[in-house]
Amino acid sequence: MIKSKKEIVVMLLAGGRGLRLRELTNNMAKPAVRFGGKYRLIDFTLSNCCNSGINTVGVLTQYNPLELNYYIGIGTDWYINRPNGTVTILPPYIGLEGGRWYKGTANAIYENIDFVDIYEPKYVLILSGDHIYKMNYYSLLEYHKKKESLVTIAATRVPWEQTSRFGIMNIDNDNRIYEFEEKAKNATNNLASMGVYIFNWNVLKKYLIEDEKNSNSSNDFGKDIIPKMLEDRLDMFAYEFKGYWRDVGTVESLWRANMDLLKENSELNLYDNNWNIYSKHYNYPPHYVGKTGKVKSSILGEGCIIHGEVQNSVLSPGVYIGKNSKVIDSVVMPNVIIKNNVVLERVIVMEHVVVKSETIIKNRNDKIFIVNDT
Question: What ranges make up the beta strands (E) of 158-208?
């Protein structure tokens, strides 16, 4: 198989189930979860690739991949399949020696070494398909080159109470990483890995092969590969990212990220024509607000019909809201029908749900309620 040689290849990890998203991922992989009225989580990473001028992307899928695979296709909607560009779906497969599920993030890349080698890249960029942010990966690559780094980890400051959810690193005055701890219970720093890594491919390939031979390894970048590289004193640097970034690993964090979009000066600007977030387009008619309809500080997807009241909420395409109904501080997935005299507050409504008349859900708890059936 002959392919064009590439300086950098992206390997996008998109196989996660996302158990903490509860019912939202019962039938789809986490990166396919809806967000922001018209997007899915994976749109942000794919759009970053397009806007950064990186056009060779392998997408590693595993859990319930059908909807995600169909959605991505060959990357047309993200303009990645431009001349000499491609998006390739890379599920687990059966070879002469049998087959198995990906055992961890590092093993997923190991199992696809042949795919990367086709392009003979100098660098490999490892990404997650379930984070919400806008980043210029080309700037990250230039930083990696300038530092003469073998490994560069994009990092961001997180609230101290959330440090146990992330890989936390300590750095010196030159941003060189000298300590990395995955999901530390008593972190000494709040500089967290974003799950965005650039490796020199010849170095990473060597460590992947060694890691696969270690029967005690969990085959994970944060738990095994990065600590081993630190132990061997490789040149590793942190690239501190200052913009908006959210790991929407829980229902509550997904809800909060949607609410962030409704702020007047949202840190995540979806209206920046210099950095578009692309998604697959569906042919819905324009949204419509009827005579009795009221909308305040909300996002309405195409095809919405509003006869009730919407406050501080995000509505996906094709949502119908009946008369005398109120949707407040909520996220509504596509093609939901909310009948008359309904009140929904601080909830996420799953797609295709019909909310019966007279349903009242006033959620005042920190835990966000998921409406799956009424």
Answer: 167-171, 177-182, 191-200
